[in-house]
Amino acid sequence: MKLFFTTARYYWQLSFAVFAAILALALQFTGLEQATNWVLAGAALLLCVPLIAGMWDDFRNGSYGLDILALTAIIASVALGEQWAALVVVLMLTGGQMLEDYAERRAHRELTALLARAPQHAHILRGRKVVDVAASDVRPGDKLIIKPGETVPVDAVIIEGASSFDESSLTGESLPVEKQVDGTILSGSVNLDGVLTVKALHSAADSQYQQIVRLVENAASKQAPFIRLADRYSIPFTVTSFIVAGAAWYIGNDPIRFLQVIIVATPCPLLLAAPIALISGMSRASKQGIIVRTGSALEKLAEAKTFAFDKTGTLTTGEPDVSDVIALKPYSKNEVLGMAASLEQGSVHILARAIVRAAEAKGFSYTKAKHTQESNGQGIVGMLHGKQVIVGQYSLMELHGIQIPAEHHVTATVAYVASAGELVGIISFKDEPRPESKATIEQLRSFGIKKFLMITGDNKTTAQAVAKKVSIDKVQAGATPGDKLRAIEALNDRPVAFVGDGVNDAPVLTAADVGIALGARGSTAASESADIVIMRDNIQDVARAVAIAKRTFGIARQSIIIGILLSFVLMGMFFTGKFPPLLGAVLQEIVDVFVIFNALRAHSGGRQTN
Fold this sequence. Notes:
Layout: H1 2-29, H2 33-46, H3 48-60, H4 67-79, H5 83-107, H6 109-116, E1 121-126, E2 129-134, E3 143-146, E4 156-160, E5 163-166, H7 168-171, E6 177-179, E7 184-185, E8 190-191, E9 196-200, H8 208-221, H9 224-252, H10 255-262, H11 268-287, E10 290-292, H12 295-303, E11 306-310, H13 311-315, E12 321-327, H14 333-344, H15 350-361, E13 370-374, E14 379-384, E15 387-392, H16 394-399, E16 414-419, E17 422-430, H17 437-446, E18 451-455, H18 460-470, E19 474-476, H19 481-490, E20 496-500, H20 506-511, E21 514-518, H21 524-529, E22 532-534, H22 540-575, H23 581-599
Parallel strand pairs: 11-18, 11-20, 18-19, 20-21, 21-22
Antiparallel strand pairs: 1-2, 1-3, 3-9, 4-7, 4-9, 5-6, 5-8, 10-22, 12-17, 13-14, 14-15, 15-16, 16-17
């Protein structure tokens, strides 16, 4: 809406300038030269008012030094009797601002489309009746009907039916995803096939689509840091322009020579290139399921020198499987696995899920343990058949006085199982690297990033084995959340990007120069902590994000530098005093148009990862 009113304002300014030009032409043809000059000068000076207001706003926001060139050109044109040149500068400046708004709308199209597709309605089951309500009225536990072609209004679980879903608005992935009973569906995905009965898991405000919308709105409201790219050049460019214009006046001993130079030094290339390239790059990233929250995050990602990765769920699949069970007499492997599954069946820990999956695969029917208590990620303790059973790490066994024989001290990822104060078995796990992890690291190396670090709470042997498979040399294993923070803070080659799966990585994502949450569709904490949120659970999107960031900033810098160089070429031409100021205003607008469309290239594809 703000963009609409801004465009409307420029439209009326441009219309007023065109009307003044037509009126001045009519007066000139009738021979009323003085009236012509008054109309031209009055229109130009009147249209300077919003320019001055904009300069004041920029000054308060810490951006200054650019609009003063345009203002000087307009006032100097009026003062020196070049009223037509003054109006053309205003006409071109306002037209350039409208062109910028067009470019911004084009670059924003994925972001605005995302907002426009937000689910509005839901079919809620009340008894045997289906009632249409606003999506905002749905509460957790409500039963809903979702018909083919409809957008899922809230995060939900399927309780009847099966269908395929288009999740492209969430992840950028175009292929449909199959979902069946007990499958979780996310708000914003589109039901392609069957009629479903589902149970709401969250309200609309807390569901996935609204989380993405909030991220996008946040990204759109935090673009100012990027404009500092233009500010780096603004003061030197402004000072140089005034010096060259002053020299032309001094050498030619004619103030018109000052005007001839200053009129081609208008700052549109600097004002337009950076924000248009930024919006284009962020929009392209959003289209691929990569949400960049701030312009400064995109800049730091483009310049990142070090990448740190979490292991489990980031470089690896995050779903370890039971690889072996060692049973100590008189227990069998099945008894040890069943005992562990009895305790772990209510846990959400990834190793607990692996134990339960392994037991279910063997068709076990096990008793649920009583009085279970998880111990801060170390394991779980509970009562089973009147005996205390402990499943967890070596440190948890030590805490409860369980003796681990030396021959059973292992450095791989394991869960010890104890019953009635004695060790009864050891369960080993394997968590394979993602197939695309190594290719992603190699792709990042090809971008010039040389330092890579894996930080994990897992043991050293397992961590080093994974690191070797994905081509990472430096490993910090056995790290607590505090250790991870200190490791990031100790890195010298900055900016540092940290990539985590969002489960326990929120503090580290905040501490890194660029925090990247991978596959954070279900992690609100990670989405709020990260600078960049990758919606798909695909680590290759990290390389895609870097490629987009580098391309965006490359195009922004290129547009600024080309704009400055062309302005200097024009200043050199008009320094000679052989060209009228009116021609200078027209040529400068041609430069502006070129810069805008060059910056829009950030929205199109560049170098791609496979």
